[in-house]
Amino acid sequence: MKHILLQGLAVFGMLTSVHSQTININFSHYGGKQYVYVLERGSKKDTIITGTLDTSGKAVLVIPQAKKGYAGISHFMLTDGGGMDFIVNKENFSISCLEEQPNFENTKYEGSPENDFLNRKIEQQKVILDKVGFVQYGLNLYKKEEPLFTAFQKENENLQQQFTALSNETAKSTLYAARFIEIYRFLMGIGSTFNQPEEEKAKELNLFVKEKLDMQALYNSGFWNQGIEGWVNLQQTIIKDDAVLLTDTKQILSRIKSNEIYTAFTEKIVAVFTKEGKDDLVDAISQYASKSGRLEKPSKKLANTINAPVIGGSAPALQTASGKKTINKKTLLFFYESGCNNCENEIHQLLGNYEIVKNKGYEIISVAADMTKDAADHNHELPWKEQLCDYKGFAGPNFQTYAIIGTPTFFTIDEKGKITGKYARLVDTDILK
Length: 433
Known about the structure:
With 433 residues, the chain is an alpha+beta fold. The chain is 42% helix and 19% strand.
């Protein structure tokens, strides 16, 4: 489960918190060093302060009025390397380290219940889980009839009680640190009980995401992308039901209070669904979000997806070097990008089955996302006539008109110019049957 959920999760270094207007920094080994101070915001990071530590390594960070209500992870980074992560949440506090390499033990802070709670609970959890690993080894090593097995079993029960109490205390806390710990546990694939069957744990973690996960807290955690991608990966690997995935996605959206975060979640989940080739889910969520009236300054990609051609609708005209080309015959429209492994596979499929496609009455039109003439590294001579490329990549008018977020993408179009299907693979078009 840990491997399922933890894709791309960086080991977070030092998480010392601040819920604050001002933060007093004291790193005596870094006097005169330049720094930047950054807040997390979804897939982006906001640099809000830049400056230089004085000769004794001190600085005062003042949170701008515009960020006064921010609650989340922040990063204090030296421009030539090093730094520290901590929570900001309406606290004025001090943080200091008199040694060259800051860590949990040698860094001191005053006036921050947020960071104190975070560091204390993370350490308590680590101690419990380390012991659990040892106990599980003992339970596997000894037979049930041996005295030590009973001793290990009792210790396992004791550790479970400690972990449950720790989880309950975290759940009851209103601190941002508590929400961050819950996010961290999800990404680590940690369930409520030890030795849970994978399917049971997956259902529990999925229930947490769709019903309890604080999306504002996730948005400001630095784990926005990993959290959403991890959840979809969990669904894909364990639950394996797109109908459940769609329903749960809508439930998550319904719980989000901020229009900014609603928009960001929609953009991210649409991008993930596109990458996975789930075109039906892309269309369903795009239209669902569009009808909500809650999308706030959506990206151009999302706007194009919402306005994308639909199955049963007319195929938009293509921009060619000689002008607009209206599609009014059976056509297999193929969007690809040179250097893309999946695209290379589909090019091989097209070449190997070209006569079949042609004999079925389809004209092939390919549209490349290449940015330069020497980008085509597949070294194939494509036999069909219409090979379009404007060297504008995904920003080109044809990619924009057809709302292409990922490649390869196929459209099948009938003799009346109506779109009959959209696919990620040639074999899925049923043309080869």
